[in-house]
């Protein structure tokens, strides 16, 4: 005689019960059986009111509709996550802009980006050490609203240029204009965190996809 492990049987039965309890079709079937039983056993002198039957049917339809909606939303979320992963893979090897104060370097030239929230009559970019010491300034004059870029000759700097950062000061007359610094970096890998697509960048940062300002 072959005996089934008690733990295994309980687990299977428990899983089947959970599925049956959450299955909209099973719920509707149970409701109809209960309704038929109620009609068969009702008091002939005090039959079930039509309004009560309508209310009960409306309730089961509401529950069934919610279950179906939940299943549909779950399916949509899974499809969206898959689309995000495919989109993320297509970005590997591409350069993107994220908020940051690092410059990208190519053949002794540093390049950075920033976004102006409004037109400015005077814009300057300061190249600074990690400690905040200014080593050079790039004067850009008047600039329109939107994304702007600058280049800096790093060949005259004797230290490690990749350690440097930049900061942007912009104004329109006496009024300051907000400037958001942007860093260019290449995407080297993709991942996921709490269901959201993440990108691992060449500079070592890992950012959520929604923090990408632009793909270059």
Describe the protein's architecture and organization.
This protein is of the alpha+beta class and 216 residues long. It has 2 domains: 6-83, no CATH class; 99-184, Immunoglobulin-like (Sandwich), CATH 2.60.40.4070. The protein has 3 helices and 12 strands; from the N terminus they run H-H-H-E-E-E-E-E-E-E-E-E-E-E-E. The protein has helices spanning 6-22, 24-40, 50-91, and strands at 95-99, 104-106, 109-116, 120-128, 134-143, 146-153, 165-172, 175-176, 179-193, 196-201, 206-208, 214-215. The strands form 2 sheets. Strands 1, 2, 3, 6, 9, 10, 11 and 12 form an 8-stranded antiparallel β-sheet that branches. The protein has a 4-stranded antiparallel β-sheet with strand order 5-4-7-8, with no helix packed on it. A hairpin with a 4-residue loop joins strand 10 and strand 11. The longest helix has 42 residues, at 50-91. Mean pLDDT is 81; it is low at 1-12.
Any chance you could write out the topology, listing elements then pairs?
Layout: H1 6-22, H2 24-40, H3 50-91, E1 95-99, E2 104-106, E3 109-116, E4 120-128, E5 134-143, E6 146-153, E7 165-172, E8 175-176, E9 179-193, E10 196-201, E11 206-208, E12 214-215
Antiparallel strand pairs: 1-9, 1-12, 2-3, 3-6, 3-9, 4-5, 4-7, 7-8, 9-10, 10-11
